[in-house]
Amino acid sequence: MNNSYLNNSSFPGTPIYSGNIPTPNQTTAPGSMKEYIPDEQSYIENILRVNKGKKVSVYQSFADAGEWKDRIFTGIIEQSGRDHIILSDPTTGNWYLLLMIYVDFIKFDEEINTVEQFYPSKG
Fold first, then answer.
1. Distance CA 65, CA 62 (A)
2. What global pTM score does this model have?
């Protein structure tokens, strides 16, 4: 029997570190995500985190679905993680937990906040 997980000090779900800054995940809840996003990690989840509170339309496709093949979910970004986005729709009172695996693209109704370290400087 393979007990590699039992003898491994790095158990699945353990935060990944970049330098001295832990990579944000579902178990961390810092006050300002801009302070904790590692420079080299320009991931969708991090871009969504620095745009928390903005209205978006999330376009998703479900390949094997008949009736719900392509859907658009509109709402306010409440949270995001490596595998999900949580939206609230103030017009209907609905909340959505959307899986990233189905995201085609995300449309913002206003300018997208970015973290400058993600992008090479314009010289």
1. 6
2. 0.62
